[in-house]
Amino acid sequence: MGLRAGLLIKHIVYSAQLAAVLEVSGWPKPGNVHRTRDHSDACYEHFLAGSIALGSSVEAAARRGVMIARGIIDSSRAGVGRLVRKAVIDVLSSHNDGNTHLGVCLLFIPLSISTSKTYIENNAFSSDILRRNIDAIMRSTTPIDAVEVYRAIRIASSPWEMGKVADLKSPDLYDKEAEKKILRDGITLLNVMLDASSYDTIARELVTGMEASFTVGYNELMETFRRTNNINTAVVHTFLRLLSKFPDTFIARKVGLKKISDVKKAVEMGIEETRWISETAEKILNLGGLTTSEGKALLWELDEKLQSLGKDYSPGTTADLTAASIMIALLSGLRF
């Protein structure tokens, strides 16, 4: 593909792997696995392994973006779904425990395709153009992409973790006829994500040009790093800012599904019951977060509280958004 494209692809892979490593290494990210906290089903080292294992799929995604930019293939042949499934399989094969990076895989693959497309076409990084390209890639997805993502999610998750949703156009994830219905009705990956965007923040990111990651996460990361020159503080504050603005739908789903099987209603119920988490995150930031003794004290208190409530209270969606925000910053040239 040439030296220019080769270096670009290496930069994208490096940014993705390092972003995932920095995200899980941020501490204390309350409720999450981090460098001083393990969970019963996954430990810090599992996340490190998964972060490195993402590289192969990200590289393939970046290559597809170059090919699209050069007119070699159409955007509809980007293979978003297949690459997401490959990334999930690679991550699961890298360690002996469960799902560590499903949300990251869903975000990093279209981001990687769009980044290489943006650089090749514009010879520069532009957040606005990159977001438009993410939107264009998602709008070009096909029913095959939807089928592949369904398969990826089923590989990484159990039925009881996902729940069911009534009155949506997309078939239920664990419907035995789901794949046939998707292909028969021409349901694209964009259609699926639009359906899920009202109750799942990762889906919402994929249909809004990754709005939260670009406009909240990236901005918080860069501002905090400029102010503190400390990458860990920047990562943790980014996590807290995202958590304060967007109640974690992973937690909300887990909490709500204990009372109702419809996942959309479960998330609504769960958000109401766990709103105190977002409110506490905002309070920590208002106290100065990791830059003050008062902020640190409340941050560690929240971590202890969430850890004591069990793995259902791990803000996994917020971690995924944080990882995407870090990747955007690294792609933009952040060095620390």
The shape is globular
Radius of gyration: 19 Å
CATH class: Mainly Alpha
Which consecutive residue ranges, at least 5 long each, have pLDDT under 50? none
N-to-C terminal Cα separation, in Å? 30 Å
Question: What is this structure, in a nutshell?
Answer:
With 336 residues, this protein is an all-alpha fold. The protein has helices at 3-25, 44-53, 55-69, 80-93, 102-122, 127-139, 143-156, 159-162, 178-185, 189-196, 201-207, 211-228, 231-245, 249-256, 263-273, 275-286, 293-309, 316-331.
Keywords:
Triphosphoribosyl-dephospho-CoA protein; 70% helix; globular; mainly alpha; 336 residues
Descriptive overview:
By secondary structure, this protein is mainly α. It has a single domain, classed as Triphosphoribosyl-dephospho-CoA protein (Orthogonal Bundle). 70% of the residues lie in helices and 0% in strands. The protein has 18 helices and no strands. It has helices spanning 3-25, 44-53, 55-69, 80-93, 102-122, 127-139, 143-156, 159-162, 178-185, 189-196, 201-207, 211-228, 231-245, 249-256, 263-273, 275-286, 293-309, 316-331. Helix 5 (102-122) runs parallel beside helix 18 (316-331) and helix 12 crosses helix 18 (316-331).
